[in-house]
Predict the 3D structure of the following.
Amino acid sequence: MVALAHHAGLHDPPLGSSIEHIIEKPIVTHPEPSSSSRTTEFILGIRDQAPILLGVAPFGIIFGALTIASGIPPLEAQAFSLFIFAGSAQFIAVGLIAEGTGALIVVLTIFVVNLRHMLYSASMAHHFKALPLRWKLSLSWLLTDEAYAMASTRYRQGPIKNAHWYTLGTGLALWATWQASTAVGIMLGAGIPNSWNLAFALPLTFLALLAPTLTDRASWAAAVTGGLLAVLFATWPFKLGLFIAALAGIAAGLIVEYRQGDADKFIGEAS
Amino acid sequence: MTTAYLWTIILGGMLVTYLSRLSFTVLFPSDRLPDVLQRGLRFVPPAILAAIALPEFIRPEGVVDISLNNPYLIAGTIATLVAWKTKNTWLTILVGMLALWVLTVIL
């Protein structure tokens, strides 16, 4: 959920290669895991997620407290976690709401921020294919960054009979932790005075999540373009400028990457 | 900030998020993403995070203020250095908040 920090993981999932991966490795090389029972898999999923839960809980608490500090009532604050269940998008949405952004722009921003879930969906599609629809609907609902990270690791270990129970355990553990920690934050948030400037923790959080995403020139181009244009366009109504700035940043990243690829190719051909 | 406004965002946000998660598992069963989408996705975090964070430091009161009288800018710069050097989320938030508290007392 606090996913942007782990965004480097986006490069890891073998998108589209999951089928080949399993075909490459014959089933006979994995005789043991297929005997896992439902309960064993479910509990294993929760257990493997435990260290990540320790990292997620403080963010849930901060989210709850910040949301209250931004003037959002407790019921709606909890509803963000209950219904959207996507940490970074929730933080960003609350940041936008605090500045009076139009509802449509906020929803569009959530959409763009959560587009990466399509990656996870694409990666999991093959593994969920044989499951009944109710399983697909539930597991997809729980498909956050951290759940994807754990579940895709489990699936990569070979054909495991009840791996969907593992995925369910991992997803439900995250869901419960996120709800409980949000609730704790909401209770704490009401007691924190305005003079603490708690809302400033929001841009600081974004800054901290931004740093590890700056891995090459293309990602720098995306951040610099997005940041500077957002400052320039800040007076546009409904925070439309922020949305346009982010889209321009994404485009800038793609352009730099494309040109770099071309340059590499040129160098490759010349040498 | 009306109730209708907040619930539009909550339910709209739920819809777009769930649709993304359902996209390939239920809606369009397939293993592959369109190439441009897959390449563009990794630029979403840096672009959107910078776009939200930078104005908070440079124009905290609604006008561009690049001066030593802007505690948000100074605290943000210090936090940037911490984020850059340590890549530690908690330390970045902690140092940034402490810097802001100290600066608002001094300035």
Q: What stands out?
A: Chain A touches chain B through 103 residues (CB under 8 Å). The radius of gyration of chain A is 21 Å.
